[in-house]
Amino acid sequence: MNAIFLPSILGVFALADWYAVARRRQRLEWLCKPAVMAxxxxxxxxxxxxxxxxxxxxxxxxxxxxxxxxxxxxxKFEVGLGSFLLAHLAYIAGxxxxxxxxxxxxxxxxxxxxxxWAVGGTVLRAVGRSPLRVPVGLYMAAISVMAxxxxxxxxxxxALGALLFY
Length: 166
Hints:
Elements: H1 5-23, H2 26-46, H3 52-73, H4 77-98, H5 102-127, H6 133-152, H7 156-165
Helix pairs in contact: 1-2, 2-3, 3-4, 4-6, 5-6, 6-7
């Protein structure tokens, strides 16, 4: 399979998903959203990272993200949030396996702590005293650590992807 095939399929599904969301075409979204993640998993399986541990962690993170997407589509918010929390923990392990440098990680964590405090405070105020307050807070902390770990690797593509997601 040539190197452009899977990324092209990914692009088609992603564009179709965006279209489906914009036009409120739920059936198309329910097809395309999981398909995007399935193609990302296929791409991750074909990559040759520096170690097999990295690949396992990143594939696990993508599988957990797919589970989270499906849970949200089925209106299972708590299950989706839990899946995404576990996905970010797997991404953290993957970035640590890539070799996140402590000084870069700490610098990024300091900057992201301010961003997390500003944005996270707003989110937590909106959640109020809901039972979801602690799980949402844990998720926000995990995604912040994930982004800091990605920045800590010094790999611009990992950093860009994590920051765009963040």
